[in-house]
Specification:
- The structure holds two protein chains of two kinds.
- By secondary structure, chain A is an all-alpha fold.
- Chain A is 72% helix and 0% strand.
- Chain A has two domains: 75 residues, Cytochrome C biogenesis protein (Helicase, Ruva Protein, domain 3, Orthogonal Bundle); 58 residues.
- Chain B has one domain: Glutaredoxin.
- Chain B is built from six helices and seven strands, in the order ααβββαβαβαββα.
- The chains are: A mainly alpha, B alpha/beta.
């Protein structure tokens, strides 16, 4: 009985431990180990594989994907990098095989101009619209304040009369 | 001016509509090959049937041909096999087979059992030529010109419709007579 009580008291801990143990193999599959002689190279490699898109799985980078083509691409990036290739050389060689599709950062060229310009265009458009609204409302306010003293007195009178009337009705 | 502005939402809807409509029916998983217009990558791999024989890009010289990437692990390759047999037998198309990331014994057994549509079979267990070709999933079929230039890539199963609509016209344009 005491044992049972002890167990149930620590049940959440037990459960957590069990879950962690169960989750371990799933995590182990994800990474194959590449070793680099410098931290800087490791960093370059990591950046590179997160900027390359998997052609098979389309919405994943090759760092996150387990497909065999992503494995091959990671291998190639590693192989070229340890052979002293620059980032541009590696990128060009992979794009030469798989096409522009695999770039998560497309090059700035004629075909991609609209793609790159769209954020700027929409921000500019938004600013223009907001600016237009602000200008217009300001102009309307000005028209309001352009009433003469006499007119203003009339307006107040009408408003008062209206209020008084509705009050008395209520 | 105000009246014109009233039509702005309609205009935006129309432009968006045309843009989005043009995307309907397009399969985003089918990518154009980066190699179209370029020469076949250089390679030196063993023949599937005769390990002592080396096959190189020279195999594509002479007449336009098809290059079919396949593997015994690939269910869609099984599905297109009968059509490849038909192409090779009835239409007489030279099809070079690229056995991709596979095992020699299994691949040979498959061809013995289902028939062999390939004029040459390249054995690429590590997928090195496949990688150079930008293969991202079998089956893929390339149209190769008589001078060894990559003319087209078809991703997915080859059937009679694909042959009639895509492969045959391309082969004929490249000087074939089918």
């Amino acid at each position: 009985m005491a044992i049972f009580r002890l167990f149930s008291r620590f049940a959440p801990a037990w459960l957590a431990a069990l879950l962690i143990v169960l989750a371990l193999p799933a995590q182990a599959v994800v990474r194959d180990v590449y070793s680099f002689d410098t931290e800087e190279k490791q960093q370059r490699y990591q950046t590179m594989i997160t900027e390359l898109r998997c052609p098979k799985c389309q919405n994943q980078n090759i760092a996150d994907s387990n497909s065999s083509i992503s494995e091959d691409m990671r291998d190639e990036v590693y192989r070229m990098m340890t052979n002293g290739a620059s980032d541009v050389e590696i990128m060009d060689s992979l794009v030469g095989r798989f096409g522009e599709f695999i770039r998560y950062k497309p090059l700035l060229e004629k075909r991609t101009l609209l793609l790159w310009a769209t954020p700027a265009i929409s921000v500019l458009g938004g600013l223009l619209i907001v600016g237009g609204i602000v200008l217009r409302s300001r102009r309307n306010n000005q028209i309001d304040s352009e009433l003469s003293a006499e007119e203003r007195a009339r307006v107040e009178k009408i408003m008062d009369g209206h209020n008084g009337k509705s009050d008395s009705q209520a | 001016m105000k009246r014109v502005l009233l039509f702005l939402p309609l205009l935006v809807a129309l432009v968006l509509g045309v843009l989005l409509f043009s995307g309907i029916g397009k399969d985003p998983t089918k990518l154009d090959s980066a190699l179209v217009g370029k020469a076949m990558p250089e390679f030196a791999l063993e023949d599937l049937h005769q390990p002592e024989v080396q096959v190189s890009q020279q195999v594509f010289q002479g007449e336009p041909s098809l290059l079919n990437v396949w593997g015994t692990w690939c269910p869609s390759c099984r599905a297109e096999h009968a059509d490849l047999m038909w192409l090779a037998k009835n239409e007489g198309v030279p099809i070079v087979g690229l056995n991709y990331k596979d095992q020699r014994a299994e691949a040979k057994a498959w061809l013995e059992r289902l028939g062999d549509p390939y004029s040459t079979s390249i054995y690429d267990p590590k997928g090195s030529l496949g990688f150079d070709l930008g293969v991202y999933g079998a089956p893929e079929t390339f149209v190769i010109g008589a001078d060894g230039t990559v003319l087209h890539r078809h991703v997915g199963v080859v059937n009679k419709q694909v042959w009639e609509e895509t492969l045959r016209p391309l082969l004929n344009q490249a000087g074939g007579q089918y």
